[in-house]
Design brief:
homodimer, 408 residues, alpha/beta, seven-stranded parallel sheet, 16 helices, 12 strands, transcription coactivator activity (chain B), D-isomer_DH_CS1 (chain B), D-isomer_DH_CS (chain B), transcription corepressor activity (chain B)
Chain lengths: 408, 433
């Protein structure tokens, strides 16, 4: 079965190569001034100084590939994007010369990275710039649920007066003591770890679930690891999501898993809207099974309180996908993204790339065409890299089989 | 000779079922189980002493109160039999504790119940200023939509990175310390100013101590107040000190409204000299956005004096307050009290009346304590049983009283506690101990 798929890929590569549209892996100089396009933004002022001597930089300000100019689709060699545009397989196929995509930010669930690899496009991200901003905002959301500052400020804005202590207790009703509470972190990556360490300072007992994390990190940070998602949900007073969105965890928080949560638990999401089934959440909020939720990300963005499944849900705190933002983080991410594009343009793909997220898929995809590349385009890209096709093939076969299902 | 109106210090059994009054609340359900076998508990639900029933003013021996009623000297003088006041909470600036001492009333507080609640809320306010969650939630509620990243940057504009920022804590008491340790976890550099704190605490917690308020203000990106309000620090934050703060600094106040001159703050917020302020306490409470000096100020986050509250903290404080009242009723004042805040003033005040008490009411309160005649004004560690304040005409030449004895319903006016007293040298232990 996998063999069949490989052949499919092989055929596709041959087609492409014969047409000379897009060699699978680029190495060596591109067109003297390749086109770099910012897809879903208009401001390139930070990227310009880093790229202007090696590329032409353009912006599309598009919310879908439909809005992207023909010229960019035909000529762009590198694309920069945020989270507000999606690049599915169909979208990617519209680009004729794309070699590298750089996400200005850490999540890349809006790009089909496997399809990109098959089309010979490396996908990169910028994982580090907003780690602390996101962790700080996550803690802020958690504290707003426990201490109710946002809701009380809102009540004061709406004219509530709390004169006596009884009235004060009423307006603050639900504000809870933190020490002794359990915070359950789903996904102990960079942000999850930063949140864990902050939460400990408030007296939270911190537990986490992360099926991908190596054994022992819980010892490094002094946290308790749960073997299953259910274990975590059962033991948490407040659940905070810090995992990326992939094909396995859409609607991770749904009717069924919400019912595994404690009665009256809190939910916080600064990761991806797709992790939470908002209909199920709304129902749980209305019934009080979830005491409050704080969400920076939503199934449909931009979020609006007047639309969608959450529109009548009580006890909500929402922000418009801003947990990553500070001026410094924004600039750092943009500069790092521009530097990654520069590395792609002036170096080798994927070797020169610092944060390529689909490297394995790329290498695998390139196997089947490397032979053709060596044979057909031996003058490109230092063909000596492919002088031992059989050995390479064996190695790649092994890693190919180790890749997750769904690659075709 | 007026019998038993208010002896300066009470020791020994009160009336079998003394009256305990909750002044500015109506709910005594938590206090009842702790007090019902030794006292009658009543509530006044008053916002001033004008609203307190005559009976309570005349008969209450203990008063419980929150922060919503003020007890000035005049207010205190309305009470005829009060011996102890217990603040259900930590701040006691709403009670004139010196006047109370002079009137023979011990004042106590409950300092521990809400320490972490207040620190957690303070951090929440600080984070809301840096990450702007409250304001962005408000913007979404008002219909703002942020579609593109440029719009996201705009709605989040002003959100700042925390690591490397300096948090300046004014007052490193229980709450200040708790805030300092939380803030460190976020990457704040933490500095503090506290003129009352012993040397070395900064070493214990790994913080930097500033020698003056000005030093702290100059070096802080965010200033947070955690000191109590007293006669020396009203309007600590005013036009002059705000100008010592950094351009665009943040201000947080969960301590007392009187520490901040709101007119000056409003002006600084409008001019952007202060980038944002988060206040749980205000000069006039209850706070309203539509009234007062702050009503047109931008970049404000306000909560209605709720930073102390959680159900657990509330119950703990009320139980502890009730237990303190119980200790006062069944034990000795101030010895049996755990958190008496005006002990020194009480002891000093009792100096001057101890002799009259001893001579006149020797049969009250373990009179053996008073075998010693005039001239000896030793004060037992247990405090002096008093009996009958304001005994007329009992000024003795040996006592350096500054004023004549006040009318019968008041104890003799004693000099303020700072004055030298002959008592220090010879403390005597009454034989009933």
């Amino acid at each position: 079965m996998a063999l069949m798929d490989k052949h499919k890929v092989k055929r596709q590569r041959l087609d492409r190569i014969c047409e000379g549209i897009r060699p699978p892996i680029l190495n060596g100089p591109m067109h003297p001034r390749p086109l770099v396009a910012l897809l879903d933004g208009r401001d390139c002022t930070v990227e310009m100084p880093i790229l202007k001597d090696v590329a032409t930089v353009a912006f599309c300000d598009a919310q879908s590939t439909q809005e992207i100019h023909e010229k960019v689709l035909n000529e762009a060699v590198a694309a920069l994007l945020y989270h507000t545009i999606t690049l599915s397989r169909d979208d990617l196929e519209k680009f004729k010369g794309l070699r590298v995509i750089v996400r200005i930010g850490s999540g890349f669930d809006n790009v089909d990275v496997k399809a990109a690899a098959e089309l010979g496009i490396a996908v990169c991200n910028v994982p580090a710039a907003s780690v602390e901003e996101t962790a700080d905002t996550s803690m802020c959301l958690i504290l707003n649920l426990y201490r109710r500052v946002t809701w009380m400020h809102q009540a004061l804005r709406e004219g509530t007066r709390a004169t006596s202590v009884e009235q004060i207790r009423e307006v603050a009703g639900g504000a809870a003591r933190i020490r002794g509470e359990t915070l359950g972190i789903i996904g102990l990556g960079r942000v999850g770890q930063a949140v864990a360490l902050r939460a400990k300072a408030f007296g939270f007992g911190v537990i986490f679930y992360d099926p991908y994390l190596a054994e022992g990190v819980e010892r490094s940070l002094g946290l308790q690891r749960m073997a299953t998602l259910q274990d975590l949900l059962i033991h948490s007073d407040c659940v905070s999501l810090h995992c990326s969105l992939n094909e396995h965890n859409h609607h991770l928080i749904n009717d069924f898993t919400i019912k595994q949560m404690r009665q009256g638990a809190f939910l916080v999401n600064t990761a991806r809207g797709g992790l939470v089934d908002e209909k199920a959440l709304a129902q749980a909020l209305k019934e009080g099974r979830i005491r409050g939720a704080a969400l920076d990300v939503h199934e449909t963005e931009p979020f609006s309180f007047s639309q969608g499944p959450l529109k009548d849900a009580p006890n909500l705190i929402c922000t418009p996908h801003t947990s990553w933002y500070s001026e410094q983080a924004s600039i750092e991410a943009r500069e790092e993204a521009a530097r990654e594009v520069r590395r792609a343009i002036t170096g080798r793909i994927p070797d020169s790339l610092k944060n390529c997220v689909n490297k394995e898929y790329l290498m695998a995809a390139s196997q089947w065409s490397s032979m053709e590349a060596a044979t057909v385009h031996s003058e490109l890209n230092g063909a000596t890299a492919y002088s031992h096709p059989n050995c390479f093939l064996k190695y790649m076969l092994k890693s190919f089989n180790a890749l997750k299902p769904g690659l075709h």
